[in-house]
Structures are given as C-alpha cells and as structure tokens.
Write a structure and sequence with these properties.
single chain, about 280 residues, alpha+beta, FAD/NAD(P)-binding domain, Enolase-like, domain 1, 3 domains, five-stranded antiparallel β-sheet, 6 helices, 10 strands, about 25% helix
Length: about 280
C-alpha cells in the first residue's frame, strides 16, 4: 500500500481541545509537519456529495467562510452514546438523564440497581468499566449487609496513541485549568522533549510535558505529556498522584540518561518555584 493523503475537518480550534492549548497546537503541528496531514480546524461539514472519484465535502469555518475538499473515501467520527434503547429502563423505574447513576454506581431512582460501563455516561473507557464493576460488586455486598456504600472516584487517566504511537499523549490527574477550577493554587512547569538529549539520540525529539503541583503542599496533582513514551510515563505519574507524593519526596537523581529525565526536570523546576515563593 502506498502513501495516503489525508485531510481532517475538526470542529474544535485544535486537537486535544479539552486540555492546555499548547498540547493541541503541538499535535496539530506534529501531524501537519511530520505526517503531511492537512488539518482544517474550527470547521464543520455542511454538505457531502458523491463524485466519480469518491466524495466531496463542503465545510464552513467559524467566520462563516466555506471551503471544499475532496477524497476517495470519507470516514466520520461522531462520538458515541450508550445503547440503552430496548432495555425498558422505565419498567425498573429508571430514567436515563443527567446524574441518573451516582458516584457509588447505584442509580438515583433505585439504590439497589447498579450500572457500570458506557451505560452510566461517566467514563466510556474499558479499564474504567472494569474497575467500576469491581467497585459496584463491593457496594452490592455492602448494600445487602446493610452497610454504607463508597463512591468510586478515579483520577483522570487518558491515553491517546497519537503520532502512530511514536508520540502518544497522556494525561493523568489534573490539568492546570481543572486544578484551578477545583480550588487549588498551583505551580506548573513545562519542558520540551528536545530539552533532554536522550530524545534526540532516539530520533524522537518532538513533544512536551507539563507537571501540575499544589503551590503550598508540593503535592503532585497532574501530569500531561505529548512525547515518546508518554504512555509509559503515565503509570509513574499515576503512582505519584494516587499516593499523594510531593515534589520534595521524589529523589532528585538520575542514574543514566533516559527519557524519564524529562520528568526529573519538571520536578526540579516546580520544587524550586515553591521554595522561592
């Protein structure tokens, strides 16, 4: 199979629109400069026509200007919704609405009915569904025994295998904006992968990473990475965040030039910022 020319129409201003703009801009540049993909952002399709050679899409941007792009094949990624039709929820006294499943996985209408996975509308991710299942089972047993149920409150843990998985994106815990919205006063540090020579040696010099830390306690609140092995870094970030470690508690030590030195730099910078406040 030969090379494929690809054009993407995205209604958002940039990819990864839910996190810091720098990461979305980096993904856009990555795909345009390294993979030759045309990204048309801030636009939506108005019309799709078939042609002798395939399809033609007419799109409109946020200013109202229209454009046309053509191709042999069209793929539409429109998101997904739980397939609840046909389950007759009303027969069980349930109504699918915002907040219909509580944080204990029990339904708001009937605390003896528990819902996990895509159906509850919380996090449509397989690994989250598995954890919800285990947690719901524990709460079912607690309910049967007349004991209190516990909420399921996982930290955000998202991986996008962008850049042909060479440059994956990972977010664990808070972004800067979500931490501030949650009431934290934060300090952050951002480093480019090119700041550490090991990424250049491995011929993967692109990308960046960001650490979000509580400005007073030094507790690590979140990690965002768009770089080689960011998906692997996510596990280390999960351990630091879920155990409540602070930047003071992480040894400032590197045994050999390796990609995690990117994280070492973030830890040193946030630690210094806190100490100098």
């Amino acid at each position: 199979m030969g090379d494929v020319d690809l054009t993407v129409i995205d209604r958002n201003d940039r990819p990864l629109s839910a996190v810091d703009p720098a990461f979305g801009s980096a993904v856009k540049s990555l795909y345009e400069d390294e993979f030759g993909i045309e990204l048309i952002t801030g636009a939506s399709a108005d019309r799709i026509d078939t042609t002798e050679d395939g399809v033609e899409v007419t799109y409109r941007d946020q200013t109202g200007e229209t454009g046309v792009t053509a191709g042999e094949q069209l793929y539409v990624f429109a998101g997904r919704t739980p397939n609840l039709d046909g389950l007759s929820l009303e027969a069980a006294g349930l109504e699918d609405r915002a907040g219909w499943v509580t944080d204990t996985m029990a339904t708001a209408d009937n605390p003896r009915i528990f819902v996990v996975g895509d159906a509850n509308g919380r996090e449509p991710i397989l690994h989250i569904a598995k954890e919800e299942g285990y947690h719901a089972a524990e709460n079912i047993v607690a309910t049967a025994n007349g004991a209190s149920t516990a909420p399921y409150e996982p930290i955000i843990h998202r991986i996008v295998f962008s850049g042909l998985s060479v440059y994956p994106f990972a977010r664990v815990g808070h972004s800067e904006s979500s931490a501030k919205a949650a009431g934290f006063d934060v300090v952050t540090a951002t480093r480019q992968a090119s700041d550490d020579g090991v990424f250049k040696v491995k011929a993967v010099p692109l990308g960046l990473a960001k650490l979000v830390v509580d400005a007073y306690s030094g507790q690590i609140l979140g990690y965002l990475g768009l770089h080689h092995h960011a998906d692997v870094f996510a596990k280390l970030a999960q351990v630091m965040i879920e155990t409540g470690l602070t930047v003071e508690e992480i040894p400032d030590r590197a045994y050999h030039p390796t990609t995690p030195e990117l994280l070492d730099g973030l830890l040193r910078e946030t630690k210094a910022t806190i100490e100098n406040r």
